[in-house]
Amino acid sequence: QVQLVESGGGLVQPGESLRLSCAASGSISRINNIYWYRQAPGKERELVAIITSGGSTNYADSVKGRFIISRDNAKSTVYLQMNSLKVEDTAVYYCHVELLYWSGGFTHPGDYWGQGTQVTVSS
After folding, report:
1. 98: closest CA among 89, 88, 108?
2. Which of 20, 17, 14, 15 is nearest to 35 (CA)?
């Protein structure tokens, strides 16, 4: 009923930038909170950024001042602009969306994960 498609990952050098996208599609009534997580090899998944339905944002200390999360409600898409990338930002990045979807004439709560996109920062 709902699909999330991530894009924008890649290989960059330290100091460069990338922008990740996560587009939701399907029988969506409303998108609430949206999160970006990341998981580096051998490490637990960590929360990177959150944006609420009202547009409030919060960031992990490790990315504060470098990453910007934003959303385009008309396109059901969330972005993560990553600037001044560091080697330690290397990870698989996942979006996680809390939403209401239509089914059987009613809305239902659901949460969905993107497929993940690899970000590698290396010189």
Report:
1. 108
2. 20
Mean pLDDT of 38-48: 96
Distance of CA 47 to the CA centre of its chain: 10
Q: Rounded to 10 degrees, what is the CA torsion of 35, 55, 20, 90?
A: -50
Provide the H-helix boundaries in 6-89: none
Q: What are phi and psi of 11, to 5 degrees?
A: -110, 125
Write the CB contacts of 89 (distance below 8 Å, at least 6 apart in sequence): 38, 63, 82, 119, 121
By the 10 Å C-beta count (0-12 exposed, 13-18 middle, 19+ buried), 60 is classed as middle
Q: Residue written as tokens 């979006």?
A: 95
d(CA 94, CA 116): 5
State the pLDDT at residue 83. Answer: 98
pLDDT at 1: 83
**How many residues make up the chain in this entry?**
123
Mean pLDDT (the chain, rounded): 96
**pLDDT at site 116:** 97
